[in-house]
Amino acid sequence: MAFELSLFSGALVEKQAVNEVMKCNDLTVKFGFVLTEAQALALVETRSFALKENGRIEFGGGVIDKIIKEFCNSPYLSRHNYEETLHELLETFYYYKNETLDLMGDDDLIKYMKNAFNGICQGSLELLSGRELYKLARNLRYGYAPDYADHAIQLDAEEEDEYGRY
Amino acid sequence: MADIDKICRIKRETLSSEYYFKSLLEQAYMWGMLSDAQLEKIQFDCLSLLAKQTERYNSGGSSSIRVEGAQSLLTSIMFTVGVWLKTYPNPDEAVAAIQKESMYALYQAGHKRIDGLIKSTKILHSSIIGNLLQTENVFYRSTIVDGIKGFFKLYYPEFAAQEIHITADYPVHHPMERLVGIEFIQKYLECIYYENLFCAQFSAEDVHHLLCGYDEDYEELLVNIYEPVLSAAIGCILSGRDVHRLEMAPSSIQILNDLFRGKRRTEIEGILREAVSQLSGLLKLTEPLKRYLRVSLPQIAAVIENAVLLQTLDRVFILPKYPENNRQLIFSFGEKMKDEKYRKVLEEIRQCRYLTDKKALIKGGIHSLVDLEDILLDAELREEEILSIFRELNPAEIAALVKKHPMPSALDQYELRESQIVLGQCLQKFLAALPAKRRDLIKQAAAMLDCIEI
After folding, report:
1. Which of B47, B63, B78 minimises the CB distance to A106?
2. A164, B80, B180, B448: most buried, per Cβ within 10 A?
3. In Å, how far is A158's CA from the nearest CA of chain B?
4. What's residue A1's pLDDT?
5. Contact present, B171 and B284 (Cβ < 8 Å)
6. Closest approach of chain B CAs to the CA of A107, in angstroms?
7. Confidence tier at A92 by pLDDT (50, 70, 90)
8. Average pLDDT of span A127-136
9. Residue among B39, B51, B71 whose CB faces A59 most closely
10. Domain ranges (residues) in chain A
């Protein structure tokens, strides 16, 4: 009989998480977004994959419902890209959870992602992940405020030559 | 028919001290005391507890955690539950408690028990610090005082109850159970307490001399103090010597050799037990201390059995040694000449072509051994030149150089200059070429010598 952590990442957790995701439909329905059980399960699977990829473990619905609740009123989301964007956001979230060394709480990170996504990135997930969150993680690792040192990043970029070498 | 015990399905010996809760579940499942459904419920309860602890660990700010962190939290939870389950008289009752109580209640009870253990262990530690043995052994003090203080500073039972944080360098005599966290530290300090109590029956000076008999440099050895003291006390009893002084004579070893020769381990243990009973009459020993001594005997009996076979009983029953009575020779290397003058002489020697000229310059310009040593190191002399200079020196001077430049080990060589290595090698070569009697004399003198630079 094994009594390891792996026991907890099985069907038991998934069932609990799917239920919590489905509950979010009550809120998102007024924005025209409804997830089917299969879609909820797919999101939970993406979460499991992202957690495994990033060497993390999570309990309950975790952040899926938080991300849904925060992003459901975004002007850049539509029925066509709703589910796909949620998958991308989930993967990005867990990746940057590690990159920011857990220095930022879930709510703060999601709020930062939402502001950047709706604001400067204008709905671009590439810009969100590759530029804004990269800057955030770098600032936190170096002990700066999350929105600090735009010029420092630019300076670093200038040090690279045209071939991207330093 | 003095003690009637209830028949238990799970034997305590089959359970791990370190992972008690996990091994108890395994055994209970194996014996059919827990069904699949019950086991699943326990796992689910642990999951809820882990989720709660993770939330506390992250201060409510994050619902996910790195796998290593979660594993450590889970181990801590299971250890805490295990600490409580160990308080039940037998494993079967512990399994009944798992079935009856919620996991959270067991965890809370375990947490309270750990808090209690921390308090009692801190009291035990203070009492040990108040009655430390007066010994020069560096590991004794650094582990028992500084190490344990470090443990209490770092120990965080809320999230890492299973951590030990320190390495208990100083060894205790009883083999330690595989314990972790506060349980390990408590058991370790209990052993130290009893060992101190026994060693405190003898004067610090006598214990020091006894340990000098073990090794004159015992201060820097990772050696248990209690074992040689107990062996010597038993040896004194068995050979009719004064146990209070721990002073056996070489004849005592012969007596002990005759006593133990051809005996089996159980017989040796019987003799030792009898000696400990006599010891109890002569020293002020409390009942728990007597128990501790008796538990030590099988280990000592095994050592004696081997020592009798290998004719090394004198390494078990140690004779005291008094290093302060050793003859000491003091040798001065003399005073260094002024740097400017030294540079001039060195330059002249370096420029000489012939050894005879070099030797003449040394004889004329160098008047102390410390300067000669510098010349040997700095003048880039060849091996045969160095050996030739050694031939001009008297045995006392050679002994002083041997003392200062012993043959370096392969490891030490990394820290030495090349010329220092060459000088050490030349000295060894020179000694090897001497007649055996003269060589031994120089080596003995070198061992006794205390060099003084100025």
Report:
1. B63
2. B80
3. 35
4. 47
5. no
6. 7
7. very high
8. 94
9. B51
10. 5-159
pLDDT digits (tens, 9 = 90+) for B143-175: 999 999 999 999 999 999 999 999 889 999 998
Among chain B residues, CA nearest to A9: B47
* C-beta atoms of A55 and B51 within 8 A: no
- Taking an 8 Å cut-off on Cβ atoms, the answer to whether B50 and A8 are in contact is yes
| % of chain B residues with pLDDT over 90 | 61
State which residue of chain A sits closest to B64, comparing Cα positions.
A58
Residue of A55, A94, A106 lying closest to B67 (CB–CB) = A55
Please answer whether residues B107 and B80 qualify as being in contact, where contact means their C-beta atoms are separated by less than 8 angstroms: yes
- Inter-chain contact B64–A94, Cβ cutoff 8 Å? yes
Say if the Cβ atoms of B70 and A106 lie within 8 Å: no
Out of B51, B58, B66, the one facing A55 most closely (by C-beta) is B66
User: Is the predicted ipTM greater than 0.85, yes or no?
Assistant: no
Return the HEC string of chain B. Answer: CCCCCCCCCCCHHHCCCCCHHHHHHHHHHHCCCCCHHHHHHHHHHHHHHHHHHHHHHCCCCCCEEEHHHHHHHHHHHHHHHHHHHCCCCCHHHHHHHHHHCCHHHHHHHHHHHHHHHHHHHHHHHHHHHHCCCCCCCHHHHHHHHHHHHHHHHHCEHHHHCCCCCCCCCCCCCCCCCCCCHHHHHHHHHHHHHHHHHHHCCCCHHHHHHHHHHHCCCHHHCCCCCHHHHHHHHHHHHHHCCCHHHCCCCHHHHHHHHHHHCCCCHHHHHHHHHHHHHHHHHHCCCCHHHHHHHHHHHHHHHHHHHHHHHHCCHHHCCCCCCCHHHCCCEEEECCCCCCHHHHHHHHHHHHHCCCHHHHHHHHHHHCCCHHHHHHHHHHCCCCHHHHHHHHHCCCHHHHHHHHHHCCCCCCCHHHHCCHHHHHHHHHHHHHHHHCCHHHHHHHHHHHHHEEEECC
Cβ contacts of B54 on chain A, cutoff 8 Å:
59
Mean pLDDT in residue range B41-67: 87
Interhelix angle B265-282/B226-239, nearest 10 degrees: 90
The domain limits of chain B are 12-116, 201-323, 329-452
Residues of A with CB under 8 A from a CB of B: 1, 3, 5, 7-8, 12-13, 51, 55-60, 62-63, 94, 97-98, 102, 104-108
